[in-house]
């Protein structure tokens, strides 16, 4: 009979210490933590030193508090926790338009692809060039660039190389700026990232959030795509972000 999973005791003990510190509203001393977790004091000190060194705890004069690594995880994963509420919107968009659906966000000065909903009949684009490096050639990248203020966009484009990915890729920053200004609230990629593939995107906006909802489909079907459906999906996702503290 197979036994239970192999567990690493030191990891368990370190996690228990993190839980104990996180459960307290005030700094917790090493002696109090040792009692709370049921560990010998020398072992507790050893684990606490490691957690402080790695940034998961911070040692103050009167005890230990959670460190920057933990608060950073909270910030980074807060939006990820919304995916169960956002995924149905992307799935409905995929099924309605028969196209792969994407959510991307601007975070930390970079454009990040957060989620993709595709299927056997609606395959996603092979992202052979990184999303951040190809913002000028993707619909959601251009959409997010349009949402940045002029200074932020200039700073982004100054450090970006407008790589020539296909014969249709815009590689002149001035032409790109003009296209962004002319696009309204729906942005397209007409075989600029990948020949044979087109994309549409529209902004996701909420306090502290800049992003885009996008779809990809064969270029021959671009005219049949319904921007209204895309706008409805982005409005729903924007409300989800706006309602989350």
TrEMBL record:
Keyword field contains Transcription: yes
Domain IclR-ED: 62-243
Keyword Disulfide bond: no
Gene Ontology MF term list: DNA binding; DNA-binding transcription factor activity
Alphabetized InterPro entries for the sequence: GAF-like_dom_sf, HTH_MetabolicPath_Reg, Tscrpt_reg_IclR_C, Tscrpt_reg_IclR_N, WH-like_DNA-bd_sf, WH_DNA-bd_sf
Pfam family for this entry, one: HTH_IclR
Keywords: DNA-binding, Transcription, Transcription regulation
Ranges where the HTH iclR-type domain occurs: 8-68
BP GO terms, sorted: negative regulation of DNA-templated transcription
PANTHER family: HELIX-TURN-HELIX TRANSCRIPTIONAL REGULATOR, ICLR FAMILY, HTH-TYPE TRANSCRIPTIONAL REPRESSOR ALLR
Entry protein name: IclR family transcriptional regulator
Organism: Amycolatopsis alkalitolerans
Lineage: Bacteria, Bacillati, Actinomycetota, Actinomycetes, Pseudonocardiales
């Amino acid at each position: 009979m197979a036994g239970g999973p192999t567990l690493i005791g030191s990891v368990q003990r370190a996690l228990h210490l993190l839980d104990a510190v996180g459960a307290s509203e005030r700094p917790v001393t090493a002696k109090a933590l040792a009692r709370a977790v049921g560990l010998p004091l020398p072992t507790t000190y050893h684990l606490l030193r490691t957690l402080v060194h790695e940034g998961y705890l911070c040692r103050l004069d009167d005890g230990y508090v959670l460190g920057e690594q933990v608060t950073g995880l909270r910030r980074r994963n807060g939006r990820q926790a919304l995916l169960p509420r956002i995924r149905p919107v992307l799935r409905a968009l995929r099924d309605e338009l028969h196209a792969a659906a994407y959510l991307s966000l601007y975070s930390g000065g970079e454009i990040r692809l957060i989620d993709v909903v595709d299927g056997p009949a609606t395959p996603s684009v092979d992202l052979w060039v990184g999303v951040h490096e190809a913002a000028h050639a993707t619909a959601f990248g251009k959409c997010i660039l349009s949402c940045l203020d002029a200074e932020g966009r200039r700073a982004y484009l100054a450090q970006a190389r407008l790589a020539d990915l296909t014969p249709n890729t815009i590689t002149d920053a001035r032409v790109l700026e003009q296209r962004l200004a002319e696009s309204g609230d729906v942005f397209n990629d007409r075989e600029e990232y990948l020949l044979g593939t087109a994309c549409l995107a529209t902004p996701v906006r909420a306090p502290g959030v800049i992003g885009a909802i996008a779809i990809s489909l064969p270029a021959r079907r671009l005219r049949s795509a319904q921007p209204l459906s895309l706008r409805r999906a982005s409005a729903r996702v924007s409300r989800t972000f706006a309602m989350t503290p």
